[in-house]
């Protein structure tokens, strides 16, 4: 049996290892030391968010993204009549397809996020009036 000290998540354990077979190679033992504090990695430089060019539409209700994701499919285009609860688009987030529905009866006045567009929570997806 050989004894080793192993540190996992800052906690040191003494471990006994039994050689089952084969030829053992001599191993060098590292000295036991106090766990080192990890230094958080610097955040990579992220480009500034680009403003979205959207023509403002008045008199409608904006429907925003509930989570970060990507517009997978637009089901109802601009000018289409929709009823409350009807699926207008599908948002893909965390490898799941989420139905984004109309909050009221009306007409889709504007699709603000086209298919393939990455969106963040609060980004306008479409406007119904």
The residue fraction in helices comes out at: under 10%
| Lateral arrangement of strands in the main beta sheet | 3-10-8-5
What sort of overall outline do the alpha carbons produce when their principal axes are compared? rod-shaped
If you consult CATH, what is the topology of the domain at 61-128? OB fold (Dihydrolipoamide Acetyltransferase, E2P)
CATH superfamily of the domain at 61-128: RNA polymerase II/Efflux pump adaptor protein, barrel-sandwich hybrid domain
Terminal CA distance: 77 Å
Q: Could you tell me the mean pLDDT?
A: 80
The top level CATH class name of the domain at 61-128: Mainly Beta
Structural class: mainly beta
Indicate the topology:
Elements: E1 2-8, E2 11-17, E3 61-64, E4 69-74, E5 81-82, E6 87-93, E7 96-101, E8 106-111, E9 118-119, E10 124-128
Antiparallel strand pairs: 1-2, 3-10, 4-6, 4-9, 5-8, 6-7, 8-10
């Amino acid at each position: 049996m050989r004894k080793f000290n192993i540190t996992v998540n800052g906690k040191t354990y003494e471990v006994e290892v039994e050689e089952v077979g084969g030829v053992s190679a001599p191993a060098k033992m590292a000295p036991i030391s106090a766990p080192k504090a990890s230094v958080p990695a610097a955040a990579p430089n992220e480009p500034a968010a680009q403003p979205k060019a959207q023509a403002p539409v008045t008199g409608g209700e904006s429907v925003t993204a509930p989570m970060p994701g990507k517009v997978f499919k637009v089901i109802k285009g601009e000018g289409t009549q929709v009823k409350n609860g009807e699926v207008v688009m599908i948002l893909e987030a965390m490898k799941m397809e989420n139905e984004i529905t109309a909050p009221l009866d009306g007409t889709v006045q504007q699709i603000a996020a086209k298919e393939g567009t990455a969106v963040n929570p609060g980004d306008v997806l479409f406007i119904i009036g």
